[in-house]
Amino acid sequence: MSQSIGSTCWAIAEGYIPAYSNGPEPQFTSHETVCILNAGDSDAHVEMTIFYSDQEPVGPYQVTVPARRTRHIRFNDLTDPKPIPHDTDFASVIRSDVPIVVQHTRLDSRQSENALLSTIAYASN
Amino acid sequence: MSQSIGSTCWAIAEGYIPAYSNGPEPQFTSHETVCILNAGDSDAHVEMTIFYSDQEPVGPYQVTVPARRTRHIRFNDLTDPKPIPHDTDFASVIRSDVPIVVQHTRLDSRQSENALLSTIAYASN
Amino acid sequence: MSQSIGSTCWAIAEGYIPAYSNGPEPQFTSHETVCILNAGDSDAHVEMTIFYSDQEPVGPYQVTVPARRTRHIRFNDLTDPKPIPHDTDFASVIRSDVPIVVQHTRLDSRQSENALLSTIAYASN
Amino acid sequence: MSQSIGSTCWAIAEGYIPAYSNGPEPQFTSHETVCILNAGDSDAHVEMTIFYSDQEPVGPYQVTVPARRTRHIRFNDLTDPKPIPHDTDFASVIRSDVPIVVQHTRLDSRQSENALLSTIAYASN
Question: Could you tell me how far CA A65 lies from the centroid of its own chain?
Fold first, then answer.
């Protein structure tokens, strides 16, 4: 059923974790998510690097996405090597040892009604 | 007028059916949609596989998109081999025997004002 | 300053004009827009075909995007050969005699607060 | 840690700065943003050209994105050679002397609850 799909290097130029939230947690916590699909039969060892406007990149943040699994990772939850500050512009590069598919989603619940955005990330060849 | 456009393999790394809704149904039912365009002159036999974070993929879900037609399919409505649970992260791979174009849309109506997201899916070569 | 950018064939698998609106017109009229950029030095003669779930495609809708111009066209405003029905799923294929760039946006103002979606369309090679 | 990713020519067919805003500034000022990631080790000298529906393109707007940095630039803030009018359709072409990744985001706060859209821009080859 499984077959490797995607690319081994992806980039997301947008990144911003809103500073506050409204509504029941964790579903309505304002968050920035990187959705990773590993449709292949080998585990994906993924390294994410976070880029900022005014300091050197931070990383790698290491994540394993097992074979035939998806993981939707909130940037909010990344802590090692260090958390991503809120209300700060960032961008990210996602590298994997096997092909994966990457999509970027934000839920912004700073106001009483939430807002959503999503886009497939940029696949580098 | 018609000519085959697209790819035979697509992936959507994001997937999430909100657990509840507000507003008149079915337009305002929270939903996650895969929009498929078959611009060619042969029917498209489409197989979708759903990937999860903590279990083996489920599928194939089989859908036919007739020649020169579009179908906007709510993941909520897929039942065979089994329904997709709500409030659960998933991802999907869409394969077809002829080229199609795939786009992903969500309407989230958990709050009184809805939110929307959409992106062209990832076309595998 | 100008140079031709893009593709001569694009597809948008999602299409849906909400049936009603809230807020001041025309900015807050619910609409589905195809944004076309012609960055080159020749006028683009564009033909759009609309695909449905239950009838043959309708078109071509003919639009000219002059050299070095952009046009943001609401599907709501297309009338020749015939208007697109509201509250109906559709998809579109956009062909041009010179390279263009196509992006798809929706403003949904059915509720008192609007919702937005946008994605670059699928570029066929 | 760094490696050049992306393309040297990008296009965004959608562009529109809402005419007014709600909520605390600057976070909730209605804005249209171009997010640029320069993941490489050389500074990116970026030139943006703005296209309109009814006049010749304006530009170049010059921006430097230092090596290993991201910049999220609001079209609202571009002033040289001249500001972009509000409530006006536009499009943009972004060229760089080194590979970059470009993403387009809008926050529309004309109503009391904001709306968001985002998409990876079109990468020209």
Answer: 12
